């Protein structure tokens, strides 16, 4: 078998978004489309000869095929070893862990996260660097530049190795190590959390349900929750990963995880409920009768992390993406630790974690994680919650109420307008930017604009600057409206509008969220001209 050099032509649409390259499956199936992007990634990464590469994906349609191609291309591009999950499967946090543990030069993760799968669904390729985290912007820009000039790629003509069994094989001069996708990750979780305490709580009557949404976390949750922590078989539902996620969106929110939400709101609800997404990095947390917003969850986890054995020394600081609510800021202020506000995208947390400035990070988009890996981590968040419940011996709702009465409540909601006409969405953002300078002092009902800007971020570690990261309208009193366009959609544009209002008084912590945010919601339309410009009267999803 030998290494082939294949002539190819560039595609002009391979710019990585918030989290790698995401397109519809048929788009990825165009000749050389995946190969071009993988070769551009290898060229841009410029890993040392003989380096180790981790490969795996969330098991969606096309995963198996691209895993095979990536292995054959790695063999032709000078890698010494590929570590790949059995059957080509690895959750995103498990891949991040393996990159770190094996001191790999990086990893190729195949996923379109929470987007639907199947032959007409979405697919994605993402490159993670040697710290285990998503490639920073400098690297993704190099990858994109390379995709614009690529003329050939290298691939071994050997057949893709059999990935169905754990073990070693060889392709060209490269070793292929097929690993159990779960075991290293489960071991890491045992190091961070008090499994004995959680096991005792479950044995003592703590009931739970985990919805894996037919995606990658099924095997992880079954091994950890049912296997190691003794939760009854059947605790994990939809636990077998399917190529099309059973036809649903593996997106853990109130819309796509509605059956779980209904169960937690019902008379026979368990104490705790959770779900994760396509590739296992997102989480949704529920208690009996309550859905915890991701922003609140971040704040509560940060305030209570010291209760878990991996964090007993306390946390160094917290980072949140700009649109995430400021609930975590109040925790950081009380704990006298650093708080960092970054653009949307887990890649912006990497330097803060590497430099020890922060221990816990989170985003409104259902992502929470810590310095144990360099990705957000759905099962980690579930286990930290369980650890906290086991130690505090309180219910989820009680812990949330207690948190609000201590720190105040940041009412919060995100409105998504999906598949909006792209020029219309871009025009809306453009118009907002044009009006920013004159906005301060303007009054909308009882709200007075105190500050308006287009968020930019200077990385405190490497000094890199990221501009145009979302329009913020801040009102006196701290309420905010944020507008930005999603960087993960695959069709048209998705307009995200983030609404936040702080309420200090416990007497006003029980308002329905939409009532608490009513004035902000109306103001968001007035300022953003959403109806006028997009023709939409209602968001598609409110999370
Ligand atoms: C990715 C990123 C997250 C981001 C999310 C939504 O998550 O890693 O940092 O918050 O997309 O991004 P956007 O608002 O641009 O659509 P995932 O879970 O999709 O990989």
* Cα-based radius of gyration, to the nearest Å: 23 Å
Name of the level-1 CATH class of the largest domain? Alpha Beta
What's the architecture of the largest domain, going by CATH?
3-Layer(aba) Sandwich
Structure annotation, total helices: 18
User: Helix content range of the residues, please?
Assistant: 25-40%
| Count of structural domains | 3
* Distinct small molecules: 1,6-di-O-phosphono-alpha-D-glucopyranose
Gross geometry: globular
Largest sheet composition = 7 strands, mixed
Q: For this structure, what is the CATH homologous superfamily of the largest domain? A: Alpha-D-Glucose-1,6-Bisphosphate, subunit A, domain 3
Q: Assign the CATH topology of the largest domain.
A: Alpha-D-Glucose-1,6-Bisphosphate, Chain A, domain 3
Instruction: Give the overall average pLDDT.
Output: 96
Low-confidence stretches: none
């Amino acid at each position: 078998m030998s290494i082939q050099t294949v002539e190819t032509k560039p595609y002009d649409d391979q710019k990585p978004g918030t989290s790698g390259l995401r397109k519809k499956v048929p788009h990825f199936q165009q000749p050389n489309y995946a190969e071009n992007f993988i070769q551009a990634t290898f060229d841009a990464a410029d890993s040392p000869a003989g380096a180790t590469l981790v490969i795996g994906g969330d098991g969606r349609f096309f995963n198996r095929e691209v895993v095979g191609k990536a292995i054959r291309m790695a063999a032709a591009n000078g890698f010494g070893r590929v570590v790949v999950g059995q059957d080509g499967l690895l959750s995103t946090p498990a891949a991040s862990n393996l990159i770190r543990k094996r001191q790999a030069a990086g990893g190729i993760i195949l996923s379109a996260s929470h987007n639907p799968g199947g032959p007409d669904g979405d697919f994605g390729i993402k490159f993670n660097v040697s710290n285990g985290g998503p490639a920073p912007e400098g690297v993704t820009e190099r990858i994109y530049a390379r995709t614009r000039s690529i003329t050939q790629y290298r691939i071994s003509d050997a057949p893709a190795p059999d990935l169905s069994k754990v073990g070693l094989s060889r392709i060209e001069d490269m070793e292929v190590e097929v690993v159990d996708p779960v075991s290293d990750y489960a071991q890491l979780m045992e190091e961070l959390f008090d499994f004995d305490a959680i096991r005792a709580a479950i044995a003592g009557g703590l009931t739970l349900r985990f919805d894996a949404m037919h995606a990658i976390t099924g095997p992880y949750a079954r091994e950890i929750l049912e296997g190691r922590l003794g939760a009854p078989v059947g605790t994990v539902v939809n636990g077998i990963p399917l190529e099309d996620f059973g036809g649903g969106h593996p997106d853990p929110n109130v819309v796509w995880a509605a059956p779980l939400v209904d169960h937690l709101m019902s008379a026979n609800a368990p104490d705790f409920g959770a779900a994760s997404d396509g590739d296992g990095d997102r989480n949704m947390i529920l208690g009996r009768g309550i859905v915890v917003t991701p922003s609140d969850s971040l704040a509560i986890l940060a305030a209570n992390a010291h209760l878990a054995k991996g964090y007993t020394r306390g946390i160094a600081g917290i980072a949140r993406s700009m649109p995430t609510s400021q609930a975590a800021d109040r925790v950081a202020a009380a704990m006298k630790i650093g708080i960092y506000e970054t653009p949307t995208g887990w890649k912006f947390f990497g330097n803060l974690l590497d430099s020890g400035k922060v221990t816990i990070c989170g985003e409104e988009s259902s992502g929470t994680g810590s310095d144990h890996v360099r990705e957000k981590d759905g099962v980690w968040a579930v286990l930290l919650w369980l650890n906290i419940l086991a130690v505090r011996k309180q219910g989820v709702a009680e812990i949330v109420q207690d948190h609000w009465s201590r720190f105040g409540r940041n009412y919060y909601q995100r409105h998504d307008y999906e598949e909006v006409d792209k020029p219309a969405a871009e025009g809306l953002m453009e118009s907002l930017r044009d009006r920013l300078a004159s906005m301060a002092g303007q009054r909308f009902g009882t709200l007075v604009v105190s500050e308006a800007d287009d968020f930019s971020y200077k990385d405190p570690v490497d000094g890199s600057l990221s501009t145009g990261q979302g329009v913020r309208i801040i009102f006196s009193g701290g309420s905010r409206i944020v507008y930005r366009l999603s960087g993960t959609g695959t069709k048209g544009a998705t307009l995200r509008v983030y609404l936040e209002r702080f309420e200090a008084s416990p007497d006003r912590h029980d308002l329905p969220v939409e009532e608490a945010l009513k004035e902000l919601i109306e103001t968001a339309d007035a300022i953003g001209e959403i109806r006028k410009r997009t023709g939409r009267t209602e968001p598609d999803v409110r999370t």
